[in-house]
Amino acid sequence: MNGLSSTNICSPSDLSQSLQTMDTPCLLVDEARMDNNIHRLRDRLQKAGVAFRPHFKTAKSWDVFRRMMTGPHGPATVSTLREAEELIRHGVTDITYAVGISPDKLPRVQRLRKDGITLAVLLDSVEQAVAVVSASDPSDPIPVLIELDCDGHRSGVKPQDAPLLLAIAKALTPTARLMGVLTHAGESYEARGQAALEAAAEQERMAAVTAAETLRAAGHPCPVVSVGSTPTAFTAQSYEGVTEVRAGVFVFFDLVQAGIGICTPDDIALSVLSTVIGHQREKGWTIIDAGWTALSSDRGTAGQAVDQGYGLVCDVAGRPLADLVVTIVNQEHGIVAARPGCPRLDCELPIGTRLRILPNHACATATQHDRYHVIGVGKNTVRQVWERCRGW
């Protein structure tokens, strides 16, 4: 398949559908906003002189991801082996599987590594290292990155835990191939203000560089020093010692990123088109046909200065409607009302009105859908439909 072709999964007539007539709920992508987001990060990293390994986990679409990559064959980051399969199908050969490896997945990893595919796996324990060694072919060792916990967010080896780092590296030698270290500043999502974001980025950098130096001092190779999160990718002041940066949600942005200050709502390229299907006027409610199955139940902005409920409500052109959010979601119903703490808004949105909902978390909302309907800024017509891959 030509990697530059779009995958349409609808009839040609569907591509001329107006947002006023197409079936809802459905997922929209503003292509111009998306492209601006991609160029913004790629340009920043290029000027900083650091490599970019974009993450497929948000987009899960070749038509999106081919714009994110810096070369036709990668590099790329994935969160599932299904994502790796999709990228390999399109000619990508340099992939990092950035979720801790489980032994049962290693035969599948080996199958995917045939025909010259570099598929690096992630681990943070001696037990995983032993499993990788057992599955490796000495003539073609599985490439490995050691996961680091730079901020207490999730999994990984503490960068200062030299005994564990060295025990893992020793367990990998010589059958597997230690490529380096990888970390993710997950707590950067809780940072507030530029100074806190810069501090999170520096903490991430230092964790990775410190661990790499420990490994090298003991004679272990560590050519890859990988960091990445969307907040730190946009705020890091130094990449000294870092070889690559990973990020994914930046491609669309979302309300969480806007709340952190990494973007504005006008940068958000993803929205869910929905239709007004009813009212509970005595409660100040407007009911739409987009519940958690379309929007997700992510409440990532609940702890931020502005709580966006389950999504910010916009008109069909994508313009936010003042202080209207989705306050409640059921499976197929969403309740649109004034944001908590704001005066009740008694505006009338007639049945049949089309609304667009900006997501709290682009990854969570996008994964509810099997395709993107592609539009332009202020446009009212679908010009392309892009398929999303799903599964693990």
TrEMBL record:
<dbReference type="Pfam" id="PF01168">
    <property type="entry name" value="Ala_racemase_N"/>
</dbReference>
<dbReference type="InterPro" id="IPR029066">
    <property type="entry name" value="PLP-binding_barrel"/>
</dbReference>
<keyword id="KW-0456">Lyase</keyword>
<dbReference type="InterPro" id="IPR042208">
    <property type="entry name" value="D-ser_dehydrat-like_sf"/>
</dbReference>
<dbReference type="InterPro" id="IPR026956">
    <property type="entry name" value="D-ser_dehydrat-like_dom"/>
</dbReference>
<comment type="similarity">
    <text>Belongs to the DSD1 family.</text>
</comment>
<dbReference type="InterPro" id="IPR001608">
    <property type="entry name" value="Ala_racemase_N"/>
</dbReference>
<feature type="domain" description="D-serine dehydratase-like">
    <location>
        <begin position="269"/>
        <end position="376"/>
    </location>
</feature>
<dbReference type="InterPro" id="IPR051466">
    <property type="entry name" value="D-amino_acid_metab_enzyme"/>
</dbReference>
<dbReference type="GO" id="GO:0036088">
    <property type="term" value="P:D-serine catabolic process"/>
</dbReference>
<protein>
    <submittedName>
        <fullName>D-serine deaminase, pyridoxal phosphate-dependent</fullName>
    </submittedName>
</protein>
<dbReference type="GO" id="GO:0008721">
    <property type="term" value="F:D-serine ammonia-lyase activity"/>
</dbReference>
<dbReference type="Pfam" id="PF14031">
    <property type="entry name" value="D-ser_dehydrat"/>
</dbReference>
